[in-house]
Amino acid sequence: MTDDRTPSASSATAPDGFPPSPGGHDPEVLRRRALDALLTARARTTALTDSVNEAELTAQHSPLMSPLVWDLAHIGNQEEQWLLRAVGGREALRPEIDGLYDAFEHPRAARPSLPLLAPAEARTYASDVRGRALDILEAAPLHEGGRPLERAGFAFGMIAQHEQQHDETMLITHQLRSGPVALTAPAPPEPTDAASLPAEVLIPGGPFTMGTSAEPWALDNERPAHQREVAAFHLDTAPVTCGAYRRFMADGGYTDPRWWAPEGWDMVREHGLEAPLFWHRDGGQWLRRRFGVTEPVPDDEPVLHVSWYEADAYARWAGRRLPTEAEWEKAARHDPATGRSLRYPWGDTDPTPEQANLGQRHLRPARAGAYAAGRAPSGAGQLIGDVWEWTSSDFLPYPGFVAFPYREYSEVFFGPGHKVLRGGSFAVDQVACRGTFRNWDLPVRRQIFSGFRTARDA
Question: Could you tell me the domains of the chain?
Fold first, then answer.
């Protein structure tokens, strides 16, 4: 997930541009939820930055990514601008650094050359901002008639999501860095019935409600709820596995231009691609590097670190296609028994560890067929967590879209240049992952925790 979505609060749109939050949200419940989300995000940020030394924090491990210390101070700066200044009306603590941590002003490759805060100073700054932000949260009204940024705790939820998005970005940097292992986690749970699952499920045709007008912390591109008509189609029960992808490779998938979009074929030839990112061949065996560990590629785990072009090529080779964004959301949310669109595949309750692989609890996807408790009414599984799933759709606004609280979060990215990903990954926290959540990226991106599943017309 890109980090280039958070300019200064001075670019906020007019307050009346925000769709009204739904009734029935208890301010005290939302306050506790916001506090928990902010504390959870900060604990993760601390773990990601305390696990490496100062040299590793200030180094640029890839020109595709910022130094970790930039992300740390950027998190604090955005929290200062939105919670301390915009919501709390406080005087600026460090206005002179706003430009340094403006993601639109400085491309990632140039950020190491900036006069960034040193690690100790960045930690102190982020901590100072957080203490003041929690004071503001304690006193904020969060009621329906309040200011749009405060209503239903939106600004606090937005900042918690922003920090978790940067935590995912920092985890990508950890994957790209060389050197000793810095992060460890237990393996995800094994599937219990994978052998008996069908290869695909049928999603019936008809209308469904896409997007949301009810989720209090939904971001602007998820809004508003609207009706979509989707024809019947078949969808993979689980994401495409490494073993299935290896069959595509063995059949000359990277050497046959028939399967590739022209730009994708150009990418393959220019970079000499022959496998997903972080894979390499050792004799007759494919290995991968995962957070500093080299290991055999597991056949029954969802394939990871593939671009949209690679996902599209595989689907063509398999005689199938990538699902549209609307198809993906219908499969993940629509309950034919009630006609409702659910918050998550399993219902309206927040995710549990038994339902989805989220929050960096594990440093890899679970094997295909895992998380039976998290399956949708259709029988499709692992739609939330494990791997971001490429769709065939361009990132476009929904009918009635209104930018809030600033154009640069979504609006400036709309168009054919970015493809939509859905569902989250093991690197995503639940606060930034729901059935309506939309991610997007350039179709060449491979360092992100991306996979896919395929579809076909019924």
Answer: 9-176 (1.20.120.450), 186-458 (3.90.1580.10)
